[in-house]
Design the sequence.
């Protein structure tokens, strides 16, 4: 019975902690995945994939 | 006709109906399967719950493929709810063997009945706050919605626990929460719920297998799986032809059915 008590306490507390942790980690991963990169249309440094100046040696 | 063929003829059409209705409202159909299997077969309640969860997996798997082709799934929300709810689903299975869940059934039944009645009687079946894509950090392809992701993760974690504890898939709790609280469009909520259910029901089925409560249910699972895998694509197809308010009202009916089952089951016991 004491073990069942611990299990009920775990069932009450664990989902909140786990849910918060998953939320933080997934948001970080998702933001990194969605971050605009150089050359993307949405990037602040957007531009043609090949810089025309590269050709003026 | 052999006994196996007779069982197949009985269970496959039931699976078809469950697949169609479950996919349409974004639920796995466990709420119909459990009482039907208890009536139609001689399986023990624990084996019936395991069979229902496995069939919910096949239903959600087929429904997810159909909805993914329609580009209706919000993948960020789906992955968030599935990851948040998966450990709770295992914990709920362990807890279900240790506590008398009948103590919670009347409260749970009344809550579901009240939620179903409220959903059915609302003037508009669709959340007025339903929003579409905004912050790229919280949105996915096509069907994305901006929502409170922390609230979603916390509720998703508890939904995984309670649905597993009560022996249901969890879709009938998830879809109203997505629509009414987080402001998802009903069509996106049902599709996303199928993705979440696919993961949660797989985890819960593995937990049931590990606990040995699946004995004897394999043939019934296969007969029903044939039916649900044929019915689910029809449910997804039908979903694109009905309005969101109709889906919400069909979901309200499902909530009332589960609420009644829990209350009647308690009275009969």
Sequence:
């Amino acid at each position: 019975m004491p073990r069942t008590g611990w299990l009920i306490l775990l069932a009450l507390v664990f989902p909140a902690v786990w849910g918060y942790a998953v939320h933080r980690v997934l948001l970080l991963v998702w933001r990194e995945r969605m971050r605009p990169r150089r050359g993307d249309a949405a990037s602040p440094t957007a531009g043609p994939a090949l810089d025309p100046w590269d050709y003026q040696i | 006709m052999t006994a196996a063929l007779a069982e197949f003829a009985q269970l496959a059409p039931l699976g078809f109906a469950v697949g169609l209705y479950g996919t349409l409202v974004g639920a796995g159909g466990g709420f119909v399967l459990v009482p039907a299997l208890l009536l139609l077969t001689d399986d023990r309640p624990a084996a019936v719950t395991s069979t229902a969860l496995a069939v919910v997996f096949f239903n959600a798997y087929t429904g997810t493929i159909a909805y993914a082709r329609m580009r209706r799934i919000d993948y960020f929300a789906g992955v968030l709810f599935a990851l948040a709810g998966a450990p709770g689903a295992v914990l709920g299975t362990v807890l279900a063997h240790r506590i008398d869940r009948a103590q919670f059934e009347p409260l749970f039944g009344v809550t579901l009945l009240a939620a179903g009645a409220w959903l059915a009687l609302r003037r508009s079946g669709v959340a007025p706050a339903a929003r579409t894509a905004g912050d790229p950090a919280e949105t996915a392809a096509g069907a994305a919605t901006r929502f409170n992701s922390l609230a979603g993760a916390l509720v998703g974690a508890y939904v995984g626990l309670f649905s597993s504890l009560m022996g249901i898939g969890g879709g009938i709790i998830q879809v109203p929460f997505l629509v009414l609280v987080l402001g998802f469009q009903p069509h996106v909520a049902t599709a996303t719920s199928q993705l979440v259910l696919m993961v949660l029901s797989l985890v819960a089925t593995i937990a049931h297998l590990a606990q040995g409560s699946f004995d004897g249910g394999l043939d019934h699972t296969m007969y029903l799986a044939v039916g649900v895998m044929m019915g689910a694509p029809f449910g997804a197809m039908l979903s694109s032809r009905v309005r969101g308010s109709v889906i919400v009202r069909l979901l309200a009916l499902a909530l009332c059915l589960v609420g009644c089952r829990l209350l009647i089951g308690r009275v009969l016991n």
